[in-house]
Structures are given as structure tokens and as C-alpha cells.
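Same chain as my last thread, 482 residues:
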Amino acid sequence: MFSPSKLRINAKLFKKLLDVRSSYELSKVRYSDDTPEILKFYSDTPWELDKYPKLSEDDYTRFISKRAMKREPAVTRQITTLAYKVGKQVISLAEGMPNEEMFPFARLQLRTKTGKELVLEGSELAAALQYMPSQGYPALVSELRSLQRALHRAPTAHDVLVTNGAQHGIYQCVDMLVEPGDPVLLSEYTYTGALSVLRPYDPELILIPEDESGIVPETLESVLESRLARGLKMPKLLYVVPIGSNPTGLVIPEHRKKQIYELACRYDFLILEDDPYMFFNFTGVRTPSFLSLDVCGRVLRLDSASKALSAGLRLGWLTAPAPLVARAELHSQAELLHPSTLSQAIILRVLSDRAELAEHAARARHFYLERRDALGEALQVLRDLADWTTPQAGMFYWLRVRGVDDVYDMVFHRAFSRGLMLVPGQAFMFDSARRCSHLRLTFSKLPLHVMPEAALQLRDVILEEHKLAEPRRRAAAPPSSR
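reply #2:
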């Protein structure tokens, strides 16, 4: 990493900058019992896993890609962080910041749907329009630390980095941890954005099948043990969407998360927990996060404002052990300096009112539950043509079409010509040229009264596909069966 001895400046002052996270890492936290139930992603019973050691700062080095190891802090970015830390204690001729007095904006006013006013003006608006440290708007970083402690109660120290949405966080983590050709653990069907990030690294994808409770730990263990016995390169990363997996809509329960986490300790890999649908869990059962179980420091967690607050503000945050957050921050310095300060200032206001946040999360969950059930009812017209299970969380149905071994042409020709848009299962497969009989159906935006019509159109599309496929099936059948 970067050393203050390389610069001819006040070493003690610069050390304050580099040690900015220490108070957060080492402070003992007293938890409040007034967290609303919808904001609880931890178990009331502490979990211990004493047979595995907690990872040290040096231990994380073995996970960092050679490419990421070459990154060093940008001096100007470090000076920006230092400027916000020391405030008016020094006279600065350093930062290359524009003067806020020349920004043409005087006031920003937003009103929530519950009537709450959000006003930015004066020095607060000036800060929201200015450059910020790469870790994030300091007030938001402080709020996110508090929020993550309250929601997850992680048993080990973590820090946060504000990202330009969770998708940006996926890219940062993959670039930081994955070498070209590395084996990476994924569920059999995976969020297409993660696949897009991984593709340029030519990874060896190890696809683990799911059942009704998500990734199957016994299969994961068998695959890992087989690779170890054969002397194959072992994966150092598992990517997983644990609540409302996109596209399958599954939820990984607590006991299974513990099994997966113990395998991470035994076979030495990190868990990248991408959890954008955390508030849209329809099971009625509190589901502790992987972060809440992170007794050894192996979880990098991605959160997003996109699904519950605003997709267009493009804001998310990474919560991870401090050495990994520090590494990821170097990526931010090079990629975008920092996410939009204005977006951060707006989200700060929303997250600061926990009661309002909990009420909004509950409303959003009810909203999507109503739409899930409505589409599920409408899909009954397909009960003889397709198979599906009711989504446990998220925004999607994952449907297998009977008698159609590849839905791709059906989606982009038959369905589209009828004015019906669908997503073929290939979108969630690394090898998108493979045949797939699955469709992903989204219930988030479609008006309730249109859902029956959509289901009927889908039925007609499938029946048309069956008719077109019948001559091909007859031609392919052996003579004795004709």
C-alpha cells in the first residue's frame, strides 16, 4: 500500500488520514433493541465457529488479483479525504476543487409520497454538489456504518464503501479478486449482470445446482472436495444472491447459509453476497444475512438503493473487512473518483430516518407481494403447459415451458410479434448459446389488470411453438416410433 514516507509532508497528519477507519474497526458496539422487524437481518442467537481462525490483514493478500495489487492511492484523492477530515485546521492550496459559489443552484427541494420535505440549500447543498472522498460522502459513510451494524450485527469488524450501484460493486469485487481463468462459484442460473462482469476474465465457472432452498451445500461440498482431491485450482470466490435470487426467486434459509459459510472457511473462499431484494422476502421468516454470520471475515456484502428507493440515483454500498474495502476504494479512485455526491446526500436523508425507512420497506414488500400473487393467479391458464414455483422473494417467476427445449426463438419471434416481451433463460447462463426451456417473468411493473391478458398471450405463444415444433419432433423420431 501507499506509505506517507513517500511524500514530504507532515507524516503524523497523513497518518491520521490512513487511520481514518480505525475508530470504527475497534470500537465496541452496544446494540439497541428498537430495530423494526423488517430491518433485522440477523439471528437473536449468536453463532460461533471457533475451529476456524479469523482472517488477518495479511491473509487477504492471497485473494487479491495481481492487477489489483498494482494499484496505489492517488495522492490528490488522499488529499481530498484529508481535507474533509481536518476541516479548517489548515490553509489549503491543495485541492483542485471548483468554488461552490460559482455553481448555479441555490436550492433543491423534494417531497416524498408521505409528504416529508427534503430540502438542500446553503452549505449542505454546496457540499452535495462538490467533490467528495472516494470512500463516500463522510456523513453517509458514517450513517451506513451505523445502519449495517443495526441491520446485521456482524460479529467481526467491517467497513463500507459507497458504490455507483450494486452492479458497480460487483465489477469492483471481481476485478479486485479474480485472475483470468480463475475458478468462480455460482448458482446454476445467475444474475446476468454478474455474468457480464465475469466474461472478460475467461473464468472457469463452477455451477452449483439449486433446489427450493437455493444452492445445495452437499453438492457444493462434493464439488470442492473432488477438486481438492484432483489437485485442481480451488475457487476463492462464491457469488450469490441469497434473497430473491435473480432469476429463480429463491431464499437461502439460515441453516443452509451456515453450511455454506463453514465450507467457505474449510475450503478458503470468500462470499460475495449481493442482496438487492432484501426487503422483498415474502416467506414471513426472518433470514439472517451472510454478513451477520461472518465470524471469520469472509463476506463482502453489496447493498443497493435501486430496488426499494430509486434505480436512477445509482447508489449502493459495499460492506467488507476493512483491508478489502481499502483495496476496493483504490478502484473507485481510478474509475469514477466517487459516486454522485448529490445522490449520496439524498439517500442519506432517507436512511437517517429508520422508522420512515422501515415503513417504506413494508409498503414496498406488500406492493410486490400483491403483484406476485396476481401474476401467479393469472398463470393458472398455463398449468398444463409449464412448471413453476411461487417466488419466495424478489420480482420474478422462473418458469419452465413443457415440450419446448429451447425458448430463444419463441421469445424473439413468436412472442415479440404478438407484442409480448419475455426474457429467455439463456440470459442467466454463461454459455448463452446453450438450449434452455426456462423463461423469466417480471411482475414488478405490469399493471394488475393486464396480468390475465399477458398470461393468455403467453399461453397462445407456447401453443404456437408446440405446433411449429411438432413436424421437427416427428422428423427426429426413430422410424419404429412413428
